[in-house]
From TrEMBL:
Predominant location category: membrane
Keyword Transmembrane helix: yes
Sequence intervals crossing the membrane: 171-193
Entry's localization field: Endomembrane system; Nucleus membrane
Bilayer disposition of the protein: Single-pass membrane protein
Keywords: Membrane, Nucleus, Transmembrane, Transmembrane helix
GO cellular component: nuclear membrane
Pfam family, one: DUF829
Name of the protein in question: Indole-diterpene biosynthesis protein-like protein PaxU
C-alpha cells in the first residue's frame, strides 16, 4: 500500500509505507486559539507515534484535533505493533523507518516539528526514529516540541502483561489465548534480560536513556509529560521521575498529572486540560526557537507542574501555569 491509496485503517490518511500514514494540510492558517498578530508559527509537521496496537478510529481522534488546532500542518502517523517491540531486531528499524525519513526530507521548509509519542510503544518508536534520522542525515531531527503521553515507565512485569492484554483482539477466545501466550512470552523475555542480556538492555530501559541522548535530541527543546495516578499500565511516578531527570539535564518541562484517566485516555477524559497543555507547550517551544534564532537568552523556568482533576483548566500568564478547578 503506497502512493495515493487511501487507508481503510486511518480514514483520510494516505499510506506512505507499512505503519506510516500521512495527511497533507487542508488550510494555510494560524492555529485557532491565537488571534493576535504575534501568534507563533504553526508546526510545519506533526509527528504522532501511537501506542502499541492502537485502533485507527482512536488515532484519528487525536489527529483530527491536531488538524483543527493547526490546519496548516502536515500530519504523519507512525504506528507500532507488538511484533515491533518484542520480535523485530532494533537494527532492522532504520530500514522500516526510511520511507518516513525520505518523505520528511522531500517536504519543503520543514523547520518546526511537533513530536507526540504515546505509551511505551510510541516512545520506543520515536527514539528509533530519531536515531535513524541522525544516521541517515547526519543531523538531529528538527524537533521543536516533544510531548510524551503515559511514557516512559520502568519495566514492570504485571503492567507489561496488562498492556499486552489491551493490544489483543476483542474476540473473547482469541483474547484469552493471546493473553496466555503473551504472559509466557513476556516471562521468557523477563528471565532473558534479567539473567543473560542485562536488565539495562530491555527496550523500556533503553528508551528511557535514549530520550535524554543529546546526540539525537536537542535538550533545550521544551517537553510535556502527561500521566495519571489511575494508569494501571504505566506507574505515574516512573514518568514523573523521567521528567525530573530531564529537568536535571536542563530541559524545560511541563508535567501534567491527571487523577482518574486510564492509560492514554487523558485527552478523552480531560480534553480541555490536555489540549491547553499541548498549546502551552507549543507556544513555549515557538518562543524558545525565536529567542535562539535571535541569539537571545532563554529565561523560561525549567519546570512547570500541573495537577488536574475534573472541571480543571490550564491557563498561561507569562511563563507561569495556573490551574483553575
Amino acid at each position: 500500500m503506497t502512493g495515493t491509496k487511501q487507508s481503510a485503517i486511518i480514514p483520510g490518511f494516505t499510506c506512505v509505507a507499512p505503519s506510516i500514514w500521512e495527511r497533507l494540510p487542508v488550510l494555510h492558517s494560524r492555529f485557532r486559539w491565537e488571534k493576535s498578530n504575534e501568534s507563533p508559527k504553526a508546526p510545519d509537521l506533526i509527528l504522532l507515534f501511537t501506542w502499541t496496537g492502537a485502533h485507527g478510529r482512536h488515532i484519528l481522534k487525536h489527529a483530527d484535533t491536531y488538524q483543527s488546532l493547526f490546519p496548516s500542518s502536515t500530519i504523519m502517523i507512525i504506528t507500532t505493533s507488538i511484533k515491533d517491540l518484542w520480535f523485530r531486531n532494533s537494527r532492522s528499524q532504520p530500514r522500516r523507518l526510511r520511507p518516513a525519513i525520505n518523505r520528511i526530507l522531500a517536504y519543503k521548509h520543514i523547520d518546526n516539528i511537533l513530536v507526540h509519542a504515546y505509551s511505551e510503544g510510541g516512545s520506543n518508536k520515536v527514539v528509533e526514529f530519531a536515531d535513524a534520522y541522525r544516521v541517515e542525515t547526519g543531523v538531529r531531527l528538527p524537533c521543536t516540541a516533544l510531548l510524551l503521553d503515559s511514557t516512559p515507565g520502568h519495566p514492570r512485569y504485571l503492567r507489561l502483561c496488562n498492556a499486552a492484554r489491551l493490544s489483543l483482539p476483542s474476540i473473547p477466545i482469541l483474547g484469552v489465548l493471546g493473553f496466555g501466550i503473551c504472559v509466557v512470552v513476556l516471562g521468557i523475555f523477563w528471565i532473558l534480560y534479567r539473567c543473560i542480556k542485562g536488565w539495562e538492555n530491555n527496550f523500556i530501559s533503553r528508551t528511557r536513556r535514549k530520550l535524554l541522548d543529546d546526540t539525537i535530541w536537542d535538550l533545550t527543546v521544551p517537553r510535556c509529560y502527561f500521566f495519571s495516578q489511575a494508569d494501571e499500565l504505566i506507574w505515574w511516578k516512573d514518568v514523573l521521575q523521567h521528567a525530573r531527570e530531564s529537568i536535571e539535564m536542563g530541559v524545560p518541562v511541563l508535567h501534567v498529572c491527571f487523577q482518574r484517566s486510564a492509560h492514554c485516555r487523558h485527552a478523552a477524559d480531560y480534553p480541555i486540560s490536555y489540549w491547553d497543555a499541548v498549546a502551552m507547550t507549543w507556544k513555549r517551544a515557538s518562543d524558545t526557537a525565536a529567542l535562539l534564532r535571535k541569539k537571545q537568552s532563554i529565561t523560561w523556568p525549567l519546570e512547570a507542574a500541573v495537577r488536574t482533576g475534573y472541571k480543571s483548566t490550564i491557563s498561561e500568564s507569562g511563563s507561569e501555569c495556573t490551574l483553575t478547578v
